[in-house]
Specification:
single chain; Rossmann fold; 2 domains
Length: 329
């Protein structure tokens, strides 16, 4: 529930600004009672940055918050937050996703330098894993580990799906997602298993509908209501990444809905999501094997994930209480 006018217990004003829609940000703002201002813009990268910068500066001058939260990415927004803090003597907390600690997977010397500066100048940087916290602190920043709050989503309207068993692969066709391997895996699990793949497949090179196995369905980008209906109707959810320090939104959604799920076999994911799931190697055979395993133990996984959901909610509330003490909110 949002606190009126975004006032903290101390009576000081706090707001959160983001340049993209993200469920994690929405949930954190709801838990904190902090107003969220999400600014988005279409157009070229330069025009987008100009528009978003102007809108952000105008909002900061209007609100003059004592505590500013920003989401990183964007690096540009985070830099604006640093400049606001230094210019007006306010406090800044940055919620850094994996690319907010290692932009472009750490391959750009210039962006790494910008990231180090942001970490050093922020009062606190929120991250999702202990290794990301270590990276922030190597940059002489102060880190705090707080994973995503389980989203407050309800089961959507049931949809009749085409397979005897149905798998939903939650995908955005990003560089770190093994979507080609998932498509190959679908051809190996049998025609009775239908694999639905979400996301804008048109931005992925080489994806052609006519060349797909018959048991693969590309949904395209879905409105929230349709997306929740598909999540609720599938037998098993899948979310995969080749990144080591990335906790997946789809995994949180699966736990929230009590759905068995398959995630990549990375250390970060295996340490946090410990029940109700099957871990997969990011190869076609590894994914196919995980699908077979999840379907063969579906009922057992469903029971596990429902118990795990309560454990995760309880542990998150404890961490959130510690976070508020560290953040001074």
């Amino acid at each position: 529930m949002v606190v009126p006018q975004g006032r903290m217990k101390s009576g000081k004003r706090a707001i959160w600004i983001s340049w993209e829609d993200h469920r994690r940000t929405t949930e954190l703002c709801g838990a904190l009672g902090v107003p969220l201002y999400t600014f988005t813009s279409k157009g070229s990268r330069i025009s987008r940055y100009v528009v978003l910068t102007v809108r952000t500066v105008l909002k900061l001058m209007e609100e003059r918050p004592d505590l500013l939260f920003v989401q990183n990415p964007s690096l540009a927004l985070s830099l604006l937050g640093v400049f606001y803090k230094l210019a007006f003597g306010k406090r800044l907390i940055v919620d850094a996703h994996t690319s907010g600690v290692f932009p472009f997977d750490g391959k750009s010397a210039l962006l790494n330098l910008v990231c180090r500066y942001i970490h050093r100048k922020s009062d606190l940087t929120i991250v999702t894993t202990s290794s990301l916290k270590d990276a922030v602190e190597r940059n002489r920043g102060m880190g705090f580990v707080l994973q995503d709050r389980l989203p407050g989503i309800s089961p959507g309207k049931a949809i009749k799906l085409k397979g005897a068993k149905n798998i939903l692969y939650i995908c955005s066709f990003s560089w770190d997602e093994p979507y080609n391997e998932v498509i190959e895996a679908a051809s190996r699990v049998g025609s009775g298993v239908c694999v639905y793949i979400t996301g804008n497949y048109r931005k992925a090179p080489g994806i052609r509908r006519e060349a797909l196995p018959e048991n693969v369905v590309l949904t395209g980008f879905l409105p929230e209501e349709e997306y929740l209906g598909l999540l609720s109707s599938a037998d098993v959810l899948v979310d995969l990444t080749t990144r080591e320090d990335c906790l997946l939104c789809g995994a949180y959604e699966a736990v929230a809905l009590g759905k068995p799920f398959i995630i990549s076999k990375t250390l970060a994911l295996m340490e946090y999501f410990t029940s109700g799931c099957v871990y997969a190697g990011n190869t076609a055979e590894g994914i196919a094997e995980a699908i077979r395993a999840a379907l063969s133990t579906q009922e057992e996984l469903e029971e596990e994930v429902k118990e795990f959901r309560e454990e995760l909610r309880s542990s998150w509330e404890e961490k959130f209480t510690d976070f508020k003490k560290n953040a001074g909110v």
